[in-house]
Design a protein that fits this description.
mainly alpha; 2 domains; about 0% strand
Length: about 140
């Protein structure tokens, strides 16, 4: 086989081998990124908490009903506390974002605003359990 043909075949083989290696490396990188960004665990609701505790503690029917009421009252108290302090958390968040804006260049500011929009979308998409109502106690 002439040396020019052999050199051309070697060059094509190396090119194909580089493409395969690059594809494998890219797939490995994507898998690593996907595993690092695991989804947040679901927040258990009142029913889940009651059922898990009733099962693990081997509660009888009366105890389970009493536990439902206790969990319900606790969730209502947490909800009231959250509503009370939410404005203060929002004020701190707004002040922090305003302070960050003062140190950014215009190109950075645009990216920061985009980041804030994405964070807001993720926050709104997060499953929040509304405060349970009294009819949920009878579950």
């Amino acid at each position: 086989m002439p040396s020019k043909t052999r050199a051309a075949l070697l060059l094509v083989g190396l090119f194909l081998l580089g493409g395969v290696a690059g594809g494998v490396a890219h797939r490995t990188y994507l898998n690593h990124i996907a595993s690092a960004q695991s989804p947040r665990p679901r927040i258990p609701n009142s029913h889940d908490i009651t059922e898990e505790m009733a099962q693990s503690l081997n509660l009888d029917t009366q105890q389970k009903e009493q536990l439902k009421v206790i969990i319900q009252q606790s969730r209502e108290h947490y909800g009231a506390l959250s509503r009370q302090f939410r404005p203060q958390y929002e004020k701190i968040r707004e002040d922090t974002n305003a302070a960050i804006r003062t140190i950014l260049r215009p190109d950075q500011l645009r990216r920061f605003e985009d980041t804030l929009k994405k964070m807001d979308i993720r926050h709104q998409a997060r499953p929040h359990e509304p405060p349970p109502t009294s009819n949920q106690i009878e579950k």
